[in-house]
Design a protein that fits this description.
The protein is mainly alpha-helical and about 70 residues long. Helix content is about 85%, strand content about 0%. It is rod-shaped and about 60 Å long.
Length: about 70
């Protein structure tokens, strides 16, 4: 199993999930800041931060495949 590819996809899923948390926080803000706004905003920030790390620090799967193909040649 390619752990780099799995980590990149987990990062993408976390960013996708954080986008929906932001939408929920914006809806909460539009309805008047209630008890759900701050936790949603903090959850969005934490999830977006954790989701961006694999996308920044893990190599693309195509780069991994190209390295393996070049090593065989």
């Amino acid at each position: 199993m390619r752990i780099q590819t799995v980590l990149r996809y987990i990062g993408m899923v976390l960013l996708f999930e954080s986008a929906f948390m932001l939408i929920s926080a914006l809806v909460s803000y539009a309805n008047g800041i209630d008890g759900g706004f701050t936790p949603l905003l903090l959850s969005f920030l934490l999830t977006a931060l954790l989701g961006s790390f694999p996308l920044i620090f893990v190599a693309y799967a195509t780069k991994i495949l190209l390295k393996k193909l070049r090593a065989r040649l």
